[in-house]
Amino acid sequence: MRATPLLTLLFAARLLAAPDNALPPIALNPEVRQYAMQEILFHLPPEYPASNDSARIAVAAEFTAPSGRLIRVPAFYWQSADPFANAPEQETGWKVRFTPVESGPWVFRLVAARPGLPERETARNAFQVLPGVAPGFVRRNGRAFTLDSGETFFPLGANRCWGDPRRTDRYLHDMELLAASGVNCLRVWIAPWWIPLEQTPACFDPVAAARLDLIVEHAEALGLRLILCIEQHGNLEPAGGEIGLWNRHPYNTANGGPCRLRTQFFTAPEARRLFQNRLRYLVARWGYSPAVMAWELFNEVEWASYENEGFHRHFESVAAWHVEMARFLRAADPYGRLVATSSHIPLQRRLLERNAIDFIQPHIYDQDNLMGALTEALAPLRQLPAPVLVGEFGLRKDDGKPDYVTLGVLVSAVAGAGAGALPWLSDATDLRPYCARLGAARRTLAGLRWDAPDFTPVTVELDPAPPDRAIRTLGLTARDRFVVFAWADAPRPPGAPPGLTLRLPAADGDYAVEAWNASEGVSVWQTRVAAAGGGITLALPDFARDVLLHAERLRPAQ
C-alpha cells in the first residue's frame, strides 16, 4: 500500500554476517529518511509457528544506531488483506516496522524465541538513514505537548472514532475534510464494530489490521496525529446494555477466553497476559508511526458494567490494571509514546502520580450550559503538572447548530490547562458545518505560542460588570503576552455593553493587541496599549459574538 518499493538484499555488500542455516531473502529498503518507516519482510523456518501469540513465539529485531544505542522492536506475523473489499489475501510473512530517529548507518539482527528454548538469531543486515526534517513524535513537556523538533504541539482535533467498515473510503475522505479545516489530531477507537482487531484470543484479524494500516498511513500523509483508543466501556457491558458487547468479547469464556465475569478482565492473570499480547501487537504494527500520538488504554472505564457494586467497588483493581499495562507499554514501545486513559478524574490523578499516564482526559457534556461546564471542570485541573486535553465534549443532544464547537475549543484552550478539546463528531452525518467551526478555532488560535509553563491563568475584571452569565471571560498572562477570551453566555445578548473595559495583570510595557471574531476566525481589530503598575486596562470593541484578544509586548526601539 506504500509507494516506496521493497528491495531484496541477499548476500549483498551491505550484509554484515549470515547466521548458520541462512533463511530466505530479507526484504527491506537500503536507504530511508530519518523518521520514515523501515519495513522489513522475512520468513522463519516451518518449525516456528505462524502466530502473534507471544506465549507461542516471540520475534523481534534489535537495531544498533550510529550512536551505539540499542533499540529492540517486536515483530508481527502479517497476512495481506484488502480493507476496501473486506477480504484477506494469500501473502504472508513476518514484518518489522521501525522508524530511525538518527541519521547514518544502522545495523540490525532478527531474533526468535519459543517457550523453553533459547532465543535464536536468524539474520543480520544493515541499511543507511539519510537526514530528514520531519518533526518527529509527540512528547509531554511539563503541561504542554511538544515534538521532537522542539516546536510546541497544540492538539486541535475531533472525535471521528469510527466509520462504516463497508466504506473505508468514506472515512478516509472524512479525515481529509478535517485536515483541510486545520485539524491536527483525531481520536480513533479500535472498536469491534469498526476495527475488530482481536475477535478470538491472541488472533488478530488481517482485514481490521489493514484498515488501521490505511488510517495510520493517511494520517501521516495529512499531518494528523491519532489517539488510538484500545478498549471502551461497552465491551464490558452485558447484552441488553446501551452498547452491550461482552457476549462478543474475545476474553469471555463463551468465546474461548479466560473471563467468566466481566471484572476478571482486570484481574485474571491470563486476561492480563492476553491484553499485554494485544499491546505488543499494536506496538509492533503501528508503533513505528509518529502519527500515533498516544495509546489510550480505555475509554470511560467508569461506565463499564461491573459485577458486585460497580466501578467504585473495583477502583483499586482497575487502577492496578492501568499501572501494569502502562508499565508494559513503556517497556515495549521504543519511542516512549504517550499513554492515556479516560475519563474518571480521580482515577487519572492516581495514574498520573504513578507515572502510568502522560495527560488527563476529561469528557464533558451539557445541554444547557456547556461552556460553563467546561470552565468549571477545567478550573481544578489547571494546576496539575501535566497537560489536560478534553478528550470529548459536546451537547447531550446535538441541536444541529455547531457553534458550540468553536466555543468549546477556545474555552478549553484559554482555561490554562495546557491543551484544547476534541468535540464529539462520531455521530455527525455531515462533517462540513463542524469543519467550518474547527477552522474558525484554528485561525483564531494561529500564531499563539502555547508553551504552557509560561502561561498563568488570571482573573479578568470587566467594567461595568455585566449581568450574571451575560458575558464570561478567561485569561492567561505571561511575562511578555496575554490572551483573553470573552464570550456571550446564554441567553446571548445582541452585543457588548457600551464602554466595556477589561483589567488584568500584565508586565509593564507597550503591547500590540489583536482582536478576533472567534466564531468566524477573522481578525477584526488591532491596537496598541500600555501596561503600567503591573496591570493593563483595555477597552473592548463592540462585539455581537465571541472575541479573543491576544497581545505581545513590543520590544523597545534600539
Summarize the structure.
The protein is an alpha+beta fold and 558 residues long. A six-stranded antiparallel sheet has the order 24-26-27-32-29-30. Strand 19, helix 5 and strand 20 (338-340) form a beta-alpha-beta unit.
Would you mind describing this structure in some detail?
The chain is an alpha+beta fold and 558 residues long. It folds into three domains: 7-130, Immunoglobulin-like (Sandwich); 138-453, Alpha-Beta Barrel (TIM Barrel); 455-553, Golgi alpha-mannosidase II (Immunoglobulin-like), CATH 2.60.40. The protein contains nine helices and 32 strands. A six-stranded antiparallel beta sheet has the order 24-26-27-32-29-30. Strands 3-10-9-5-6 form a five-stranded mixed beta sheet. Helix 5 links the parallel strand 19 and strand 20 (338-340). The longest helix is centred in the middle third of the chain and has 18 residues, at 269-286. The termini are far apart. 46% of the residues are buried. Mean pLDDT is 90; it is low at 1-21.
Keywords:
558 residues; alpha+beta; Immunoglobulin-like; TIM Barrel; 3 domains; six-stranded antiparallel β-sheet; five-stranded mixed β-sheet; 9 helices; disordered N terminus
Strand-helix topology:
Blueprint: E1 7-9, E2 26-28, E3 31-33, E4 38-42, E5 58-64, E6 70-74, E7 76-82, E8 87-98, E9 104-113, E10 120-130, E11 138-141, E12 144-147, E13 152-153, E14 157-159, H1 168-180, E15 185-189, E16 198-200, E17 203-204, H2 206-222, E18 225-232, H3 264-267, H4 269-286, E19 292-299, H5 315-332, E20 338-340, H6 345-353, E21 363-365, H7 370-378, E22 390-394, H8 403-414, E23 421-423, H9 432-445, E24 456-458, E25 461-463, E26 471-477, E27 481-488, E28 501-505, E29 509-517, E30 522-531, E31 535-539, E32 547-553
Parallel strand pairs: 3-10, 14-15, 15-18, 18-19, 19-20, 21-22, 22-23
Antiparallel strand pairs: 1-2, 4-8, 5-6, 5-9, 7-8, 9-10, 11-12, 12-13, 16-17, 24-26, 25-28, 26-27, 27-32, 28-31, 29-30, 29-32
Helix pairs in contact: 1-2, 4-5, 7-8, 8-9
